[in-house]
Write a structure and sequence with these properties.
Structural class: alpha+beta
Strand order of the largest sheet: 2-1-6-5-4-3
Strand content: 35-45%
Helix content: 25-40%
Largest sheet: 6 strands, mixed
Number of strands: 6
Order of helices and strands: HHEEHEEEE
Radius of gyration: 14 Å
Length: about 130
């Protein structure tokens, strides 16, 4: 009988801790702290739906993803807040300007490291995000 393995970590406490560390490192502009939490082959996928300036292709690799995260964090709308909310049944980061979510990011972990980051900034896809 074949043993089934989960591809991503599902422990909510570990996912929340990784999300908190990621957010703190982004807001502090700490590339080294960001890279510590990322898997070497991490991928960041963005979905702007053609409405935002989201990257059209995935970003691969620890250093490139860390740099992109710091740049995106630094260019969030003036007066916006970045907070952790439950998104798609797990902890995620939502940046909101007033009551409107601007982007939302979710993370998939494997062996305690962030393997995949999904960033959604398409306003039509953010209508379900409740702040």
């Amino acid at each position: 009988m074949e043993t089934r393995h989960r591809r991503y970590d599902t422990d909510q406490a570990a996912r929340r801790q990784a999300t908190e560390r990621f957010l703190a490192a982004c807001l502090g502009g700490d590339l080294n702290a960001l890279m510590e939490g990322l898997a070497p082959d991490v991928t960041m996928v963005s979905d702007g739906g053609g409405f935002t300036g989201a990257p059209l292709t995935a970003i691969h690799g620890r250093e490139r993803v860390a740099r992109a995260a710091v740049i995106l964090s630094a260019h969030r709308p003036y007066g916006s807040l970045a907070q952790i909310f439950q998104v798609n049944d797990g902890p995620g980061i939502v940046i909101h300007s007033g009551r409107a979510p601007v982007p939302a990011a979710t993370f998939h972990l494997a062996k305690g490291k962030i393997e995949v980051i999904h960033v959604v900034s398409d306003p039509e896809k953010l209508t379900g995000v409740v702040l």
